[in-house]
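Convert to structure. Protein one:
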Amino acid sequence: FFVTNAGHVITNHHVIENGKRFVLIGPGLIEPVAGEVIWSDEKQDLALIKVYIQEGQLPRGLPLYSGIVPKTTDVYAYGYPETQFAIHHRQVSLHADAVVDFLLKRA
């Protein structure tokens, strides 16, 4: 999903592990968009992709919460990290901007 207005996308490492450049398609994109992996971590199963798209053509994200989520707020992640559906429960320890800034500095 898009995490910055500059075209950064966070996904899982297992999605990109055999490639460096990708074409992204999906809701909100007018046409396929080229992207390049600029950071990934197999152990954390995270990857950061830079999408090359003209300004103003980024899809709008789905606003789930409009304020800053207080630390220790319960959050849940649902998905298929391997072959079975999983639900993970954690508490907020960092804000999203701090995580994205950290990943961009490592890229």
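Protein two, convert as well:
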Amino acid sequence: VARAHAAGLCVVLGTLMPRDDLLFGWDRATMEDQRQWVNARIRSDGGIEGVADFDAVMGSPLDASRPNPLLYFPDLLHPNSLGFYVMAQAVPLEALVPPPLGRCARR
């Protein structure tokens, strides 16, 4: 982040999405708390211009810590086309655009 800011760039960080893939080595029992911790750090980082909260938009409406199966391929790791669309909508573009249209004041 510091190097990007030093180069005059604004920074948007993305949270880690929910996942439930046993095939690729995800161990929910030992890894979910770490994912939640990382996401909390990203959301609370005051030194960035914005957060793309992929965790919030890609979670299941029944259990937000699990993937929404409508947005993922059957492996529950990789987003499908609809999932990528939902992720794109979560990116706060105003954090990357200079005033007066956005809030990126770095140059």
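Helices lie at 2-6, 28-44, 54-58, 81-89. The chain has a mean pLDDT of 94.
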